[in-house]
Design a protein that fits this description.
- With 185 residues, the chain is an all-alpha fold.
- 74% of the residues lie in helices and 0% in strands.
- The chain has helices at residues 2-27, 39-60, 66-88, 94-97, 99-122, 131-144, 149-171.
- Helix 1 (2-27) runs antiparallel to helix 2 (39-60).
- Mean pLDDT is 83; it is low at 174-182.
């Protein structure tokens, strides 16, 4: 089981790098209208995030408060909507289809915030208890900065970096399934 958790950490790191790379491409103005080759990065990121979240759930769910477990569920739903929403942009009217990934991001933001409050309450993540809350807050801040492209791109890149960091936690020794010393509450 430890190998699967480590593999989920690698998936989360790759998803975070893909998300951040797309944000940097957008911020530099290298995106093109219509089909953008960088959109493949967006298609890849949510399933990789899903794998990372599954590993995080497997490793830390028992240590997270009930509100955090509800956050896991909501985050899984948000990622599923996000993963389905990106390809739908090419099937239905793009003006309408953009609402689906946006709704998925909103669900994911709330789920990550709940998960983060659960980890803050119990100290489940070693030294990184604030990370899910920070990732959840980056989504609405990025939405509010939508008109300021460099700021929006920077916040989106930080969101991807948060997933990469979460993946590193799972991949590293701190993500092993061996019980550690009791945490102070």
């Amino acid at each position: 089981m430890a190998a699967l958790i480590r593999a989920s950490g690698i998936a989360a790191m790759l998803g975070g790098l893909a998300w951040s790379a797309k944000a940097v491409l957008d911020g530099m103005g290298l995106s093109t209208p219509g089909f953008d080759p960088g959109d493949a990065l967006l298609f890849a990121a949510p399933p990789l995030f899903f794998a990372g979240l599954a590993g995080l759930y497997r490793r830390y769910a028992a240590e997270v408060a009930a509100i955090g477990r509800a956050g896991f569920t909501q985050s899984f739903i948000g990622l599923a909507v996000l993963a389905l929403g990106f390809p739908l942009r090419f099937v239905i009217d793009p003006g309408q289809a953009i609402r689906i990934p946006a709704f998925g991001l909103l669900i994911l933001a709330i789920g990550l915030a709940l998960l983060g409050f659960g980890t803050l309450k119990t100290g489940a993540l070693p030294r990184w208890n604030f990370l899910p809350v920070a990732m959840g807050l980056l989504i609405p801040f990025g939405t509010l900065a939508g008109g300021i492209e460099p700021l929006r791109a920077a916040l989106s890149a930080l969101f991807g970096a948060g997933w990469a960091m979460l993946g590193y936690i799972l991949w590293s020794a701190s993500g092993s399934t061996e019980p550690g010393p009791p945490r102070a509450k």
